[in-house]
Amino acid sequence: MTTLAILTAAGSGARLGRDLPKALVDLGGFPLVLHAARRLVGSGVVDALVVTAPDGLRDVVADLLITDAHVTVPVTVVDGGPTRQASVAAGLAVADASHDVVLVHDAARPLVPADLVRRVDAAVRAGHDAVVPGLPVTDTVKQVVPGDDVELVVGTPDRAWLRAVQTPQGFTRELLERAHKAGRERSGSEAAAATDDAGLVEALGEPVHIVRGDAAAAKITTERDLRMAALELED
Ligand code: CTP
Ligand code: MG
């Protein structure tokens, strides 16, 4: 069996608010996308990498990864799409059909531990066709009727049943392709796009499994998250 990783890096990083896309923002001397690529490759289970690049920056991203001594697997860089889902689909479209397992990882989670990558990959190889890392939710979560200012609470799900999910999310290539194809066919008829790949698999009615996530794989969305990641790097 071989594993391909799709590394999504095509977002603009609007919430970070820098003058360059989030994946190219520096963290301790290296851009986020390079941290993420090194950690995926460093896991030892990734045989090839496809990276989705922001508009006009395909060559910049390719130079960065292909010249890096730690990125020792073949790298293909493609233009991303207008949404994360479209970017993953663009990556899948160039995926070599010989890979049985696909891990989808966000450059916005640059400090993903190699162990976590191996845990997800191993669970897929062991026969779970869709595997997502997740952590118990520590906050109490309310369901609301969304409003502008004051919102009405309509329920409190039992926290014991909730998991906050991360990436990499792992799939058999066949299932991930089927889920994205069905997602494309549904789009237009359904309001919200899926915010993760597992959501597309769930929409097919296929099972998704959770393995233990890791706080170090936290997502960088805001400046505060970036500062937390810098502290994590110093440890
Ligand atoms: N992504 C992508 N293509 C898009 C949108 C997002 O490849 N059209 C990637 C981002 O680069 C990121 C991951 O998907 O690695 C998760 O997205 P998010 O954290 O929302 O990043 P951005 O979209 O860049 O940030 P923002 O939503 O604040 O603009
Ligand atoms: Mg986004």
Short description:
This protein is of the alpha/beta class and 235 residues long.
| Beta-strand segment tally | 12
Q: How many helical stretches?
A: 7
**Main sheet attributes: strand count, strand direction, barrel closure:** 8 strands, mixed
Unreliable spans are none
Cα gyration radius (Å): 18 Å
CATH level-four homologous superfamily name: Spore Coat Polysaccharide Biosynthesis Protein SpsA, Chain A
Whole-number mean pLDDT: 96
Shape: globular
What name does CATH use for the topology? Answer: Spore Coat Polysaccharide Biosynthesis Protein SpsA, Chain A
User: Number of domains in the coordinates?
Assistant: 1
CATH 2nd-level architecture: Alpha-Beta Complex
> Secondary-structure element sequence?
EEEHEHEHEHEEEEEHHEH
Helix/strand-derived category reads: alpha/beta
Strand percent estimate = 15-25%
Head-to-tail CA distance between termini: 35 Å
* Helix percent band: 25-40%
Bound molecules: cytidine-5'-triphosphate, magnesium ion
Give the key terms.
235 residues; alpha/beta; Spore Coat Polysaccharide Biosynthesis Protein SpsA, Chain A; two-stranded antiparallel sheet; binds cytidine-5'-triphosphate; 2-C-methyl-D-erythritol 4-phosphate cytidylyltransferase
Give a verbal description of the structure.
With 235 residues, this protein is an alpha/beta fold. It has a single domain, classed as Alpha-Beta Complex (Spore Coat Polysaccharide Biosynthesis Protein SpsA, Chain A). The chain has seven helices and twelve strands. The strands form three sheets. Strands 1, 4, 5, 6, 7, 10, 11 and 12 form an eight-stranded mixed β-sheet that branches. The protein has a two-stranded antiparallel sheet with strand order 2-3. Strand 8 and strand 9 form a beta hairpin. Helix 5 (173-186) packs across helix 6 (197-203). The longest helix has 14 residues, at 173-186. It is globular. 40% of the residues are buried.
